[in-house]
Write a structure and sequence with these properties.
alpha/beta, Rossmann fold, six-stranded parallel sheet, two-stranded antiparallel sheet, binds 2-phosphoglycolic acid, HAD_sf, phosphoglycolate phosphatase, HAD-SF_hydro_IA, EC 3.1.3.18
Length: 225
């Protein structure tokens, strides 16, 4: 059988959220008198959830639990007012989602972004597409690379993991897919390098969203041959 579903990572895969995340992070740091970071550095701070983002941007000698907790709260406040200034779907994402639906695939989003922000971003920026599940990071559920969220989506869809292609832009995503038994595909337009994606187990690398549709078509065709 060909693929029956695709699970997408959010930040760096469906949505280019880097500017708004970097701006919010730097505002929080500046308000504390802490040094800020160049926008590109956030490519490596984002991807493992909000708590990790804060731990990575705060100076090493200020990473006590009380400071981390307070800055998480402050980031949530700043980001909730600034998350959609520049964040947009990457070029080609809308067409890819439409085409995959037309081919009959089920679609879902799995992010390490807090669950409320994840739902909000998908509703506002990808609201004309229909997803079977949209899951962000929820307290009590281990975040990616733990396979829990990916397996929960497979169960909701009534599919086995082998039926599912997983598209993401970081090593965390590739590892999640492998641990869940899904096919890991690396998106090269996101926050990390081809080397990182290859080394973490990407079965395929794609440099444009349209190539995901081709992968799905190719697999269906090769099964029918
Ligand atoms: O860590 C984040 O906030 C972003 O998470 P994502 O890349 O899993 O969407």
């Amino acid at each position: 059988m060909g693929y029956k579903a695709v699970i997408f990572d959010l930040d760096g895969t469906l949505l280019d959220t880097l500017d708004d995340l970097a701006e919010s992070g730097n505002r929080v740091l500046a308000a504390q008198g802490m040094p800020t970071h160049p926008r590109e550095a956030y490519c490596y701070f984002v991807g493992d959830g909000l708590e990790m983002l804060i731990r990575r941007i705060v100076p090493e000698d200020r990473r006590d639990e009380e400071t981390i907790r307070r800055l998480i709260q402050e980031f949530r406040e700043v980001y909730s007012r600034n998350w959609n200034v520049l964040s947009r779907p990457y070029p080609g994402v809308d067409d890819m989602l439409e085409e995959l639906r037309r081919l009959g695939l089920s679609l879902a989003v799995l992010s390490n972004k807090p669950d409320d922000f994840t739902r909000h971003c998908v509703q506002e920026l990808l609201g004309n597409h229909s997803f079977v599940s949209v899951l962000g990071h929820r307290p009590g559920v281990p975040r990616k690379p733990a396979p829990d969220g990916a397996l929960e989506i497979a169960e909701t869809m009534g599919l086995t993991p082998a039926d599912i292609l997983y598209l993401g832009d970081t090593a965390t995503d590739m590892e999640t897919a492998l641990r869940a038994g899904m096919t890991p595909v690396g998106a090269l337009w996101g926050f990390r390098t081809a080397d990182e994606l290859r080394q973490s187990g990407a079965a395929h690398l794609v440099s444009h969203p349209g190539e995901v549709v081709e992968l799905v078509r190719d697999k269906t065709a090769s099964v029918q041959d």
